Every structure is written in C-alpha cells, then in structure tokens.
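REQUEST FORM: STRUCTURE PREDICTION
Request ID: SP-0412
Submitted by: Lab K.M.
Chain count: 1
Length (residues): 254
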Amino acid sequence: MSAHLHRRHVVILGLATLFAAPAFAQEIPARPFIEVPVAHPISKTKQPMKVGVVGAGNIGGTIGELFAKAGHTVVFSDRDEANAKAQAARVPGTRAVSGMEAIAASDVIVLGIPFGAWPAVAKQYGAALKGKIVIDPTNPNPARDGELAKTALTKPGTGEMVAEFLPGVRIIRAFNTSSYANFAREAGRPAPRMGIPVAASDAATLNIGVRLVNEIGFDAVPVPGGLHGSAKFELRGPANGLHTAAELKTIMGL
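STATUS: Completed
RESULT:
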C-alpha cells in the first residue's frame, strides 16, 4: 500500500449477479450486496450525464452510488430485479429499470458483471450498446469464470478482448485495480487522492472517462495507446491497489 494513502488496504472481491451463464462457464451464484459507506463528500458535477448500471452488485452498486452523489442521473438494473430495486431504494434519486431500459435511457453504462458473462451480455445487449459509452471494470477469475478467464490471462491485457465482444461500443476500462470497498472509502478524500488508471477505445472517449473518474472523487490517470494501454494496469500487476496519481504514473512508466 502507498505510504501516501495510509488507510488500510481492505480487499473485498465483489461479484455482480450473472445475466445468463455462457456454455463454457459454471453458473455463478448471486452474492448479497455488502454496503461500504461512502466516507467523504462528493462535489456536484457541472456536466451531469445519464448513467445506467447493468449488474448492480458490489462494484456496480458502489460506482453507481458515487455517480449519483456527483449529480449524475443513475438507474440500476440487475438480473435479480429485487437487487436493482434495493439499490434504487438505498441511493436517493435513482431508479430500478430493466437492462434494456437502462441502456436506452443512458449516455454511459457501467457493466458490473463477472468476466465470464461477457459472451452472454454481448449476445443480449450488444446491438443496443452500439454507439454507447461503456465502463468496463471487469477482471478474469479462472475459478469463477472458467475457460474464458484462462484465455484472457494468456494475453497482455483484457481490454482489447472485451472490445471483441462489443463492436461499435466506446469502451472505457477503469475501476479494475482495487476493491469496491476502497472506492467507497477513498472517493472524494482530501489530497492526495486515490489514482485511477483509465484507458479507452478512442481519444474522445478517454477524455470523457477521465472527466467522469475525476468527478466522483478520484484522480484519473489517462493511459495512452487505446485499450491496448490497459495492459499496464491489470489486476495482478504493479498498478493494483491504492496509489496516488503520481505513483501510478511512475509505476506504469507514463
């Protein structure tokens, strides 16, 4: 853990509920959402956007809450309708809707899903997501995600692999280097803030990703090279954990 970010580094692996199990992966049981209170105030954005969370588990529920606190319009969707409704009841000003409604109503979609669900999610929502901005916080876990994760871990990075499932989608890769608990505890903290690496499919999308990350109380670290650049901050790499933006730049050689 960084000496500058002196809070305890608590790793709690969150898992969103699965939409439909792909043939090569085991059925992933739903886990209850575990709320970690947002510890610091989040300033209101001057450029509110419509944000849809598809997969409202630990990571989706937490990131969605941070966007709502920043003044963005947020809707929650989940395979388990009760879970989406519970998140909407928990976060003031948000609503629970279906997955298709979340995508249609939003400018930005957070896909808080297990990595093994990408083929099924692409099949179900791929057409609707074309042209949309999608935030990808997913990480491959072989024990959970099966052969797809094993294949992903043979590659330098997973961002480009995710893009293969979602042609025509503007992908932002972020929020994959730490736990949802750390995001809740560190968002909006006094400087030095927690740094979040961000890579995207194109320069305009990267700019939006950087702004969105900054608006919910972190210091975004833009990584060049498109989604190929996300190989610099895979979960098991040196950028993992709690780091300031300056530390991340050094770690990733930026």
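NOTES: Residues 50 and 73 are 5 Å apart (CA to CA).
Reviewed by: T.R.
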